[in-house]
From TrEMBL:
Domain Urocanase N-terminal: 15-134
InterPro entries cross-referenced by the UniProt entry: Urocanase, Urocanase-like, Urocanase_C, Urocanase_central_sf, Urocanase_N, Urocanase_Rossmann-like, Urocanase_sf
Co-factor: note: Binds 1 NAD(+) per subunit.
Gene3D superfamilies: Urocanase like domains, Urocanase superfamily
Keyword Repressor: no
Catalytic activity, reaction form: 4-imidazolone-5-propanoate = trans-urocanate + H2O
UniProt-recorded name of the protein: Urocanate hydratase
Entry keyword Cell cycle: no
The entry's keywords: Cytoplasm, Histidine metabolism, Lyase, NAD
NCBIfam families reported for this sequence: hutU, PRK05414.1
Annotated function: Catalyzes the conversion of urocanate to 4-imidazolone-5-propionate.
Length: 552
């Protein structure tokens, strides 16, 4: 029986043991699509997160996907082109159940204008990373990544803790909404600026924000009180970040850490320019979208100049994967790239070892299944400090949204060992139902994005998209249940290529093979990608884990 979903009424959270499809693998993928809408930002318009990241092309395509997943046999594969099902093909029980390619636009035309045009004509939809591939689990999906970034900075600059430190950021949407909780978990006093009062209210309601300040004075006073006492606190402030950041700078205040997670990548459907209220922006989106592009760029220029000011005054400033520097540079800020990107600055040594945002979802809908797997992680990896620390923190602090789920940054060999052990628990009836394993596309083998994931690669291979494409083909060959290739969308048009994967632990022997091959080959290729680029950590991982990297 699906559970009611007060957050998005009309989009119930799937649960229970009754199947609508002909097998658990198809049922699982159907539940995951339902889940991304249940936790999505604007499910009536199929939008899951990141301004325009959609679960399906349109309502008709969505309904057709539901029908196809319900009727398909285990020896068929559903083919999805930019959120629209186009074929149900005879393959084999070993083959993926769903393959999809979302918003891959031929190089010469891969720009925002062509994307918006094709999207309006109903010919493509953007899948974001995890929206179109039905792997989104709400803000939890990026909480650990954000937390790990804060902790890396804490270790490097602040003696291992953010207690007594002021973090300034913006954007409380699907992904950015994770920031207040991650900041509080790291011990900081964190101020989050958000233009849309409804988004701020949502994060307050689920407890990610401790409070919403009435104005800038009130917000800074609360931050200062918390900072002085070393108290962890998350404060929201409704306003435009491009105005608020310079106002904070003008008062001579320098936060310890500054970043931003507004949807700066999309100047039409995402970023709100200074001087525009939400109503006007919404109207312009349909009536005169081209007005928003120069206005957005000008505001982002102002926004990033304030970030550069904070950086020069000693703050730790970083781009959190929203293309804000790219937009600012196009808007005339020549030194925007003095701000580093989070992957290169903090996380690359982890990606070299394929340690990245692995996740699992309890398809039964029962939180007890996740609690059991939490215990299992602690038992299996007692010496992995990142993961044991995270699981303990997440248990206490991270509420479930939609299907109960957990994220943990596990690496090569660890991910498959956990998934196979979970598959045994499913087989033994120790869990209430099967479990889906997946990861963010922003992972070692899964993404080429020269302004986010692969910026300043050691060998200069930033722009090469072969790796995620090879990854997707390898995942199909390794029998994963869902494989996706994504690109495009608004500001991301032409900027990235990524691969996504989901594998269902349904307790069968065949699932055991799928989990081992797909997960190990995915992480193995990720380590090879970085070893090939000359990273010593990856070369060490190749040697330590016996990964079959063919060196010339
Ligand atoms: P979203 O569209 O759900 O939320 C963006 C939020 O920014 C909205 O709430 C919007 O009201 C707010 N906003 C827009 N303009 C603003 C302004 N000028 N001032 C203050 N608030 C403003 O997007 P999301 O899913 O939260 O993603 C945010 C960005 O982060 C996107 O660019 C996304 O692609 C990127 N992202 C990064 C990572 C990562 O791993 N670092 C992961 C996912 C997404």
């Amino acid at each position: 029986m699906p559970r009611d979903n007060p957050r998005n009424p009309g989009f119930p959270i799937p649960s229970g043991s009754e199947l609508r499809a002909k097998g658990w693998r198809q049922e699982a993928l159907l539940r995951l699509m339902e889940n991304v809408l249940a936790v999505g930002e604007d499910p009536d318009n199929l939008v899951v997160y990141a301004a325009l990241g959609k679960a399906a092309r349109d309502k008709a395509a969505h309904d057709a996907i539901v029908r196809a997943l319900t009727v398909m046999d285990e020896d068929q594969t559903l083919v999805i082109q930019s959120g629209k099902p186009v074929g149900l093909m005879k393959t084999s029980a070993e083959a993926p159940k769903v393959i999809m390619a979302n918003c891959n636009i031929v190089g010469q035309w891969a720009n925002a204008e062509t994307f918006y045009d094709l999207e309006r004509k109903g010919l493509v939809c953007w899948g974001g990373l995890t929206a179109g591939a039905w792997q989104y689990i709400g803000s939890q999906g990026v909480i650990q990544g954000t937390y790990e970034i804060f902790m890396r900075i804490a270790e490097r600059r602040f003696g291992g803790t953010l207690e007594g430190r002021f973090v300034l950021t913006a954007g409380l949407g699907g992904m950015g909404g994770a920031q207040p909780l991650a900041g509080r978990m790291a011990g900081a006093a964190i101020l989050c600026v958000e233009i849309d009062p409804e988004r701020a209210r949502k994060r307050r309601e689920i407890g990610y924000l401790d409070e919403i300040a009435p104005d800038l004075d009130g917000a800074l006073a609360r931050i200062e009180q918390a900072r002085a006492k070393g108290q962890a606190l998350s404060v929201g402030l409704v306003g435009n970040a491009a105005e608020i950041y310079p106002r904070i700078a003008a008062r001579g205040i320098v936060p310890d850490i500054v970043t931003d997670q507004t949807s700066a990548h999309d100047l039409v459907y995402g970023y709100v320019p200074v001087g525009y209220d939400l109503e006007r922006v919404r109207r312009l989106r349909s009536q005169n979208p081209s007005e928003l592009i120069p206005a957005g760029r000008a505001s982002i220029a102002q926004h990033v100049r304030a970030m550069l000011h904070f950086q020069r005054a000693g703050a730790e400033v970083f781009d959190n994967g929203n293309l804000i520097r790219t937009q600012a540079q196009a808007g005339g800020v020549a030194d925007a790239f003095d701000i580093p990107v989070f992957t290169e600055a903090y996380l690359r040594p982890l990606f070299c070892r394929a340690i990245g945002p692995f996740r699992w979802m309890a398809l039964s809908g029962d939180p007890a299944d996740i609690a059991r797997i939490d215990d299992l992680v602690l038992e299996m990896f007692p010496d992995n400090r990142i993961v044991t620390n995270w699981i303990r923190l997440a248990r206490e602090n991270v509420p479930f949204e939609g299907l109960p789920a957990r994220i943990a940054w596990l690496g090569h060999g660890e991910r498959s060992a956990l998934a196979r052990r979970v598959n045994e628990l499913v087989a033994a009836g120790e869990l209430k139902g099967p479990v889906a394993f997946s990861r963010d596309h922003l992972d070692s083998a899964g993404m080429a994005h020269p302004n986010i994931m692969t910026e300043n690669m050691r060998d200069g291979s930033d722009a090469i998209a072969d790796w995620p494409l090879l990854d997707a083909m390898l995942l199909c060959a390794s029998r994963a249940d869902l494989v996706a290739i994504h690109s495009g969308g608004g500001g991301y048009a032409g900027y990235m290529t990524s691969a996504g994967v989901t594998i269902i632990a349904d307790g069968t022997a065949a699932a055991d093979v799928r989990l081992e091959q797909a997960i190990d080959n995915d992480t193995g290729l990720g380590v090879i990608r970085y070893a090939d680029a000359g990273y010593p950590e990856a070369q060490d991982e190749v040697a330590r884990k016996g990964i079959n990297h063919l060196k010339l």
